[in-house]
Amino acid sequence: MSNFERTFVMIKPDAVERGLTGKILSRIERKGFKMVGMKFLLMTKSKAEELYSPHKGKPFFVSLVEFITSAPLVVMVLEGPDCIRQIRKLMGATNCAEAEPGTIRGDFGVSIQNNLIHGSDSPESAKREMAVFFTEQELVNHQRSLEKWISPAPTPVH
Ligand code: IDP
Ligand code: MG
């Protein structure tokens, strides 16, 4: 299992405006994932259209761009084993009304659009999405001394 998988995550404007940034961040932190980049910003329309380009033409696209540019948000890059899939599990289903209790969307939201958090859905998406907001130099490579307690090397089978 690679320790170097990275994913792009956003705490969306609804969560920031509702004062849920810390609560959401703490769930990601306590799971053990490592932050390698983070910014607080107001997204421009052109960045929003670039980020969500796979959804261009869908009925919710215009509204989604309007929502995501309407207030500040937090963008970040996280690193850890299987983090793309694991963070999507922490997020829960797209529609908060369908998301399981215990997930971020299941616990904090009721809407399909205003669903608090974004996480990349594949390594290809992660690479594309993080490049919209971060240069390679802005991502901080660092080793945590506690890593062996979170993600030990697999035990050899004798
Ligand atoms: P995901 O965020 O769970 O990966 P996507 O299908 O990639 O979901 O959709 C991107 C975002 O577009 C969603 O997080 C949500 O904010 C919004 N969205 C998705 N489907 C709908 C819809 O049917 N109505 C309104 N907004 C939607
Ligand atoms: Mg998606």
Distinct small molecules: inosine-5'-diphosphate, magnesium ion
Give the CATH superfamily: Nucleoside diphosphate kinase-like domain
Q: Which architecture name does CATH use? A: 2-Layer Sandwich
User: Any idea of the CATH class?
Assistant: Alpha Beta
Features:
globular; 8 helices; 158 residues; Alpha-Beta Plaits; binds inosine-5'-diphosphate; four-stranded antiparallel beta sheet; alpha+beta; binds magnesium ion
What does the model show?
The chain has about 160 residues and is an alpha+beta fold. It has a single domain (about 5-140), classed as Nucleoside diphosphate kinase-like domain (Alpha-Beta Plaits, 2-Layer Sandwich). About 40% of the residues lie in helices and about 15% in strands. It has 8 helices and 4 strands. Strands 2-3-1-4 form a 4-stranded antiparallel beta sheet.
How would the blueprint of this fold be written?
Blueprint: E1 6-11, H1 13-17, H2 21-31, E2 34-41, H3 45-51, H4 61-68, E3 73-79, H5 83-91, H6 104-108, E4 117-119, H7 123-133, H8 147-150
Antiparallel strand pairs: 1-3, 1-4, 2-3
Inosine-5'-diphosphate (IDP) binds at residues 55, 60, 64, 94, 112-113, 115, 118, 121.
